[in-house]
Structures are given as structure tokens and as C-alpha cells.
Design goal:
Blueprint: E1 11-17, E2 25-34, E3 46-53, H1 57-60, E4 66-71, E5 74-87, E6 91-98, H2 101-122
Antiparallel strand pairs: 1-2, 1-6, 2-3, 3-5, 4-5
Length: 128
Amino acid sequence: MNFHSNILPFDIFFADKKCDFEDNFKHYYVCIYSQQLDQSHRVLNDLYGLIITTNKKYEYIQDDYVVPIVINERKCYVCCDKLVRIKLDEKVQLKQYYLTEEQKEQVRVKTVKFMQEVKRQIWGGIDL
């Protein structure tokens, strides 16, 4: 069953993601990919989102993949290295929170930096 959504890249959404081996994850996410917008993909029911967390550890550690934002007057962190596939048949709600243009650019840059590191590693760029 395909659920059509109006969630677009950089929209903030909430999802109750059911996992096979772990507890449910109830998080806010920043959308970075919608299968509905992918012209070369025939499946239309998935989003990919970056987890947003309120974990204060990110306030004290230097992390090149985190963008600080505020939701509900709480400091949060978009984790650009924590990409999660969300099926639209799960509990998914578009939220009325918006990233600034500066925050969108930071998310772009840090997500691309993370993906470049993934690419480096899977193509054998690790010296152990």
C-alpha cells in the first residue's frame, strides 16, 4: 500500500518507526529524500530522514556531522550521519517547524561530507 505524502526535502516530520530487532523509535526527522520525487524509482512509499535528537552530549563534543536547531523552544541536533528509512505507512506527521536557509545549507554540507566519507570507505579508502 502506498501512502502519498506532501513531505519534501528539508521538511521536519515526526515518525513512530517500528523496528524488527529493537524498540520503536519516536523521533523528529529532517527529510532529505522522498521516493515520490525520484523519477528513476517506481516505489513511492519511503522517506529518508536525518534523526533529530535532544541528547545534550552534542553540545559538549565536537562533531562535524551535527547541526544545532531549536524545536518547541528546546535545543536539538540534526544528526547528518544518522540516516533512517521511514515507510509512509507508519505513523508519519508533517510538522510546522522550518529550518532556516543557513541551517539547510549546514545540513546539505554536513550530509554530503558524511556521504563522501561513506563512499571513501566502501571503495577501499581505509588504511588499517
